[in-house]
Amino acid sequence: MQKRTVLRLLLGTGLALGLATHVGAADTKPFKIGFILPMTGQSASTGRQIEAAVKLYMAQNGSTVAGRKIELIVKDDAGVADSTRRIAQELVVNDKVDVLAGFGLTPLAAAAAPIATQSKTPMVITAAATSSLTEASPYIVRTSFTLPQAAVSIAEWAPKNKIKKVVTMVADYAPGIDAERTFKDRFTLNGGQIIAELRSPLRAPDFAPFLQRARDASPDAIFVFLPSGQGAAFMKQFAERGLDKAGIKLIGTGDITDDDQLNDMGDVALGVVTSQHYSAAHPSPANKKFVEAFQAANKFRPNFMAVAGYDGMRVIYKAVESTKGQAANGDALLEAMKGQIFESPRGPVLIDGQTRDIVQDIYIRRVERQNGQLWNIEFDVQKSVKDPGKKK
Ligand code: DHB
């Protein structure tokens, strides 16, 4: 009897010790975040902006969370979907990352989504902005925006501001189609008329023929969506073709007056009105701090991609923190990402627990020169906008 009690005690202690060692090991295992970004190619500015913001977040918040060392892995997919898929596979299988993140374009995020689903790995989209993407995997959480979310406000503003006839011009792929459809539906509902719908190729576009057709149609304005990185080239050709001189206004989602390029666009950008979720000129104390720290570290201005990368890290850090670094699997981590509410440099945001998409304020902004630089100056806001593009 006595012997058995001793044995039981010993066994118990051994078990407890074993458990302690096991927990200790889990504790110290690094928490791995695998960012897949276009660091080269046509969308390289998206990768450069997001990587800079992620590194800033880590510099400001430390690289240990709830006892776990955060290990950042950044891989370049050059904007090619086959590479995104292969890299996502390698990150999950070989590196055993806890979270996948990044995804600079919609087709790249779509290519990785099945891998997130199969491996039950949370996938934080910090760039791609087609509405339906969150439905590509139940493991997707988005900190960027959606085109329908951004496009509604300018479609409301335009008809109240002497813009009745519009030519739409969008990049010919999913977010462009989202922007085109959303703008058209809301603008026509408010009495506007779409007189032509033009679509430019995503890769290496030459805007000249589209601008010529737009000019020939004599609209009050052109509504434009182009992905980050194409705005400056478009703006240059807009001026070269004399559309500004012809009195044709330029409106769009804020991707066209992207803070990454805006300051180099010159006078042609002055007065361009767009709607979007982020301006580097957003006048909140949180944003001033963010922009100052970002510019000190990088010598360039953060754009909407940077802020989504920064907030993506916040969502991941808080999920590690609230699961005490011990999330047993991707599902627990995903749950901890849902419903987060916080003050982003862009303003207040919520990760909707149902849709896993971001709810945020959308601002209407006009390009102005202030202190010798071009900025998107916000002059109106629609609060707490949920993506209107989701299937009901
Ligand atoms: C997408 C990419 C962009 O650069 C952008 O500004 C908006 C959307 C996309 O591919 O989803």
Shape: globular
Helical run tally: 11
Mean pLDDT: 94
H and E string:
HEHEEHEHEEHEHEHEHEEHHHEEEE
According to DSSP, the number of beta strands is 15
Give the assembly state of these chains: single chain
Class from helix and strand fractions = alpha/beta
Q: Helix proportion of residues, in percent?
A: 40-55%
Q: What is the percentage of strand-forming residues?
A: 15-25%
> Biggest sheet, open or closed, and with what strands and sense?
9 strands, mixed
Distinct compounds present: 3,4-dihydroxybenzoic acid
Question: Unreliable runs, pLDDT <50, ≥5 residues?
Answer: 5-25
Q: Rg from C-alpha positions? A: 23 Å
Characterise the protein shown here.
41% of the residues lie in helices and 23% in strands. The protein is α/β, with parallel strands linked by helices and 392 residues long. Strands 7, 8, 9, 10, 11, 12, 13, 14 and 15 form a 9-stranded mixed β-sheet that branches. The longest helix is centred in the first third of the chain and has 27 residues. The radius of gyration is 23 Å and the shape is globular. About 5% of the residues have low confidence. The structure holds 3,4-dihydroxybenzoic acid. 3,4-dihydroxybenzoic acid binds next to loops.
